[in-house]
Design goal:
With 254 residues, the chain is an alpha+beta fold. The protein is 17% helix and 36% strand. The chain contains 2 helices and 16 strands. α1 runs antiparallel to α2 (228-253).
């Protein structure tokens, strides 16, 4: 039993690494992308009062619409109402038609979906010729005519969307380098628009959703890279296997 301290030490390290890498509230914007525009609810400002200004569009249908609560922008809209914030290309801040690609990152959690609604909140962006929209329900993310299962409730989660110069969008969650959605080509627009918006666009969307921040750049499409905690866990796995093998060998020798 003289080698049991090895396992005890490894267990302590594992607990520390797990705590470091677990999702948490109060997510901050990633620093691996040079975002040109970002809105953070922790600033205490609504997007319509931020710099640059996001234009508030729509009617909340008599609900609370959008308010700042505990460092988050909270949308609370019924199925019949809508409330969103938009930046258009005419302001000079968003240009999805760039040939270098685009990256959008945001942190949100869904609290609930309005009765008979398909999703609680959405993000939409366009390039002037094609439009892309992602709807977030409590148990899935819908895009185009498809969907992918994903629990959006509980903790805030960090999402990243990349748009390639060829017009293919991918969506990643929580720093995972494997996308939940890939090669989404959007839809052809009947009227040329070039803007980005988030919130409740109306239609089949309604409910309560919390947004911590949204940031974007039209300078590059940057997929997530493994975070330090992920790399540390991978290293720990190797150490654990090696230590466990040595401990078994020692036990057999005893």
């Amino acid at each position: 039993m003289k080698n049991t301290p090895i396992l005890s030490t490894l267990s302590v390290i594992a607990g520390a690494l797990f705590a470091f890498s677990s999702p948490s509230h109060g997510l901050i914007i990633s620093d691996d992308v040079d975002f040109t525009v970002d809105y953070q609810a922790s600033s205490g400002l609504l997007p319509s009062a931020a710099t640059p200004v996001w234009t508030r569009v729509g009617s909340a249908g008599g609900s609370t619409g959008s308010t700042l609560i505990s460092g988050a922008l909270v949308f609370n809209t019924p199925l019949a109402g809508d409330r969103l914030f938009r930046i258009q290309n005419s302001t000079g801040n968003w240009d999805g038609s760039t040939t270098t690609g685009s990256t959008i990152e945001f942190s949100l959690k869904v609290e609930s979906i309005a009765s008979e609604a398909a999703a609680a909140t959405s993000i939409y962006f366009s390039t002037g010729t094609r439009g892309y929209i992602f709807h977030f329900s409590t148990v899935s993310i819908l895009y185009g005519s498809a969907s992918v299962a994903h629990d959006t409730t509980g903790e805030f989660q960090r999402y990243r969307i990349t748009l390639s110069p060829e017009g293919h969008a991918s969506l990643y969650a929580n720093g995972n380098t494997t996308p939940l959605i890939s090669d989404y080509s959007g839809a052809t627009l009947s009227t040329a628009t070039n803007h980005i918006y988030f919130g409740d666009p109306g239609g089949t969307v309604g409910g309560i959703a919390h947004w911590e921040y949204i940031a974007y750049t039209n300078g590059a499409a940057v997929a997530p890279i493994p975070e330090a905690g992920t790399l540390s866990l991978a290293l720990f796995g190797s150490v654990l296997l090696m230590g466990g093998s040595r401990w078994l060998c020692a036990r057999r020798a005893d």
